Amino acid sequence: MEIESTPIDTKNFQTLLQLKDSTIKDSFDLYSGLFVHNKYAKQELKKLGLAVEKVKQKLEKVNDESELDLQSISSM
User: Fold this and answer.
1) pLDDT value at position 39?
2) Environment class of residue 75 by beta-carbon count within 10 Å: exposed (0-12), middle (13-18) or buried (19+)?
3) Per-residue pLDDT tens for 31-65?
4) Which distant-in-sequence residues (6+ apart) come within 8 Å of 37 by Cβ?
5) Structure pTM?
6) What whole-number distance in Å separates Cα of residue 69 and Cα of residue 76?
7) Tell me, what's the pLDDT at 42?
8) How far apart, in Å, are the Cα atoms of 44 and each of 16, 24, 51, 68, 72?
9) Disulfide check for 35: which of 2, 41, 52, 74 has CB 3.0–4.6 Å away?
């Protein structure tokens, strides 16, 4: 994951960076083992995917609304 610190980082983003730094060194075998042997892993992975999709949809809606606002301003 190519994310880096910026001058405007929030505390939560800094926490995300720390999490990335601590997990990026872990092997795929570790995550594979956790996935295979954790009976809740598939369910949680699905929930994570749905949550990401929900955020993506909200961002796209905001973007679409912003584009509409810009179009209405430029047509004046």
Assistant:
1) 96
2) exposed
3) 999 999 999 999 999 999 999 999 999 999 998 88
4) none
5) 0.63
6) 11
7) 95
8) 19, 20, 10, 36, 42
9) 41
